Amino acid sequence: MTGQTFDLLLKGGTVVSLDGIGPADVGVRAGRIAAIGDLAGASAGETLQLGGLHVLPGVIDTQVHFREPGMEHKEDLEAGSRGAVLGGVTAVFEMPNTRPLTSTAGALTDKLARARGRMWCDHAFYVGATAENAERLPELERLPGCCGVKIFMGASTGDLLVRDDATLERVLRGLGRRCAVHAEDDFRLSERKAIAERAADPRAHPEWRDVASAVLATERLLRLARKHGRLVHVLHITTAEEIDILGQHRDIASVEVTPQHLTLVAPECYASLGTRAQMNPPIRESRHRDGLWRGVAHGIVDVVGSDHAPHTLAEKAESYPKSPSGMPGVQTLLPLLLDHCNAGRLSLRRLVDLTSAGAHRLFGIAGKGRLAVGYDADFSIVDLKAERVIDDALMANRSGWTPFHGRRVKGWPIATVIRGRQVMREGQLLGQAQGEPLRFWQALPAT
């Protein structure tokens, strides 16, 4: 197509989209994809020569904890989003367990204001469900910049907790959008906490927060979601049993897994990493990791989210179980998945579905999640052949570490483009932070 003029032209790369994988140029105008194909003879204000590289739709991480406001000593919106774009992530959904909690319209407005001019990637924020705001959630979930409601059925880091079925029903009853749920049974966790206290060793973490605690909560959630006709998104699934259960409820439930649970395995991770491997729900033994991969292969898993949740190394050094659960992950999400691609566990097209198209489909993100004409020009540009060693020194998170320190991976993000603007190239940030709030299709009225 000669004679065309673009703001940005991606030349010579291999484009990965839902239509397939093959060589193509991509032309961008006004922050959106304007043309895909052979653009020989076209001109542009900026041209990126991408021979040998793959162009993916921009990766969307639908679960991060950037800790601001209230816990900026371990992470904040600027550093967390900096890590995102360094890792090839173009947009994030950020979680509500901050101080104060993101459970009111005012708290959401405050986060959006804090993000302006500081967040490198595009973003949206969850509103946390509580007994106090249950009746206001249908209004809160529709506010600009909100990606939906987050429910904690089991206590984790923070003060949000919807423990009992009566409160859970109050929350679910009025919702119109798909809500995200941390499904661990808090009653069982409380009963079994003495196991962790007696052991005083993180290897007891998957025994305390056992398979039954996850399965019980997921079954309770599915029963009430079906009763009220609500769509639920079950976060960070860790058990083979839940994969089988959720596979029978695809009409109401979607599924997230994390790279940590697809990569690490107990008890080895606790022996080598100690409390750095401690997260909720826990890393479990190999049969569960195998079950998660089965869920990926059979299409039961919809998205991969990082559950990026940093704590300082000093906090992690506290004696178990006083040590907090959570680990950084947004910057390593894409490198780990590319490594799994190279190892034959995951196809590149499936990776795209799990990291962009799935989020677009489940949450109704407007203009994101597809490499197609008319969509935002968000690209994660990767070198599938590049071999790198993940290192603490590369991490942008304020806590300055990763559980994957020293791990060699094959496949690496080379550039990150957001709305037609290159924000990262070869590990260097470019320009200024100009992330914007994500837009969503209008939620359906509650029935």
Characterize the largest beta sheet: strand count, sense, and whether it forms a barrel: 8 strands, parallel
Class derived from helix and strand content: alpha/beta
Rg calculated over all Cα atoms:
21 Å
Overall shape: it is globular
- Report the β-strand fraction as a percent range: 15-25%
CATH topology of the domain at 58-363: TIM Barrel
- In helices, the fraction of residues equals 25-40%
Look at the structure and name the CATH superfamily of the domain at 58-363. Answer: Metal-dependent hydrolases
User: How large is the count of helical segments?
Assistant: 14
- The strand line-up of the biggest sheet is 8-9-10-11-12-13-14-15
Q: What do the pLDDT scores average to?
A: 96
Tags for this model:
447 residues, alpha/beta, eight-stranded parallel sheet, seven-stranded mixed sheet, 14 helices, 24% strand, disordered C terminus
Can you describe what's shown?
- By secondary structure, this protein is of the alpha/beta class.
- The chain has a domain at 58-363: Alpha-Beta Barrel (TIM Barrel), CATH 3.20.20.
- Helices cover 29% and strands 24% of the residues.
- The chain is built from 14 helices and 19 strands.
- It has helices spanning 77-86, 105-115, 137-140, 165-173, 186-199, 205-208, 211-228, 240-246, 259-263, 268-273, 286-297, 313-316, 333-342, 348-363, and strands at residues 5-11, 14-17, 20-23, 25-29, 32-37, 43-49, 54-57, 59-64, 89-94, 122-128, 146-152, 179-182, 232-234, 253-257, 303-304, 379-389, 408-418, 421-425, 428-429.
- An eight-stranded parallel beta sheet has the order 8-9-10-11-12-13-14-15. The chain has a seven-stranded mixed beta sheet with strand order 3-2-7-16-17-18-19, with helices on one face.
- Helix 7 runs parallel beside helix 8 (240-246) and helix 8 (240-246) runs parallel beside helix 11 (286-297).
- The radius of gyration is 21 Å and the shape is globular.
- The model is unreliable at 443-447 (pLDDT under 50).
